Amino acid sequence: MATTITVLYDNVDDATFDLDYYMATHMPLVDEKFKPYGLKGWRVLKAVGTPTGAKPLFSIIANLEFDDAQQFKAAVAAEGGAVFGDVPNFSNKEPVVVIGDLVGSA
């Protein structure tokens, strides 16, 4: 069963986020550290709006793809210190991390 890890960064007034650093340095670090544990790929989205025109709750959304949640947990156990330790280099907020198993798609 496929598992998607969704990493969300709050879109609040006092939040800082360096997207250039994130894309050029942090995501390659994630790829390097987590790929040996089963990371299949990743995507980064920049939130630009909502259907109602309200401010999005999150500014950046990253999706990491693994075969199962155990692979992600093993990656975090082995390399999470390096990956999560890099967060202060691009954001002053800790991310929200959600593990989701695929139950349907079209």
Notes on the structure:
The chain contains 2 helices and 4 strands; from the N terminus they run E-H-E-E-H-E. With 106 residues, the chain is an alpha+beta fold. It has a single domain (3-100), classed as Alpha-Beta Plaits (2-Layer Sandwich). A 4-stranded antiparallel beta sheet has the order 2-3-1-4. The two termini are 15 Å apart. The model has no long low-confidence stretch (mean pLDDT 97).
Write the layout of secondary structure elements.
Elements: E1 3-10, H1 19-34, E2 41-46, E3 58-66, H2 69-85, E4 96-101
Antiparallel strand pairs: 1-3, 1-4, 2-3
Give a short synopsis of this structure.
This protein has one domain (3-100): Alpha-Beta Plaits, CATH 3.30.70.
The chain-level structural class is alpha+beta
In the sheet with the most strands, the strands line up as: 2-3-1-4
What's the CATH topology label? Alpha-Beta Plaits
What is the count of β-strands? 4
- Specify the helix fraction band: 25-40%
Instruction: Note the run of SSEs as H and E.
Output: EHEEHE
Architecture (CATH level 2) name: 2-Layer Sandwich
Described by strand count, sense and barrel closure, the largest sheet is: 4 strands, antiparallel
Q: Give the overall shape.
A: globular
| Nearest-integer average pLDDT | 97
Radius of gyration: 14 Å
Number of helices: 2
**Any low-confidence stretches, pLDDT <50, length ≥5?**
none
Q: What's the N-to-C terminus distance?
A: 15 Å
> Would you state the CATH class?
Alpha Beta
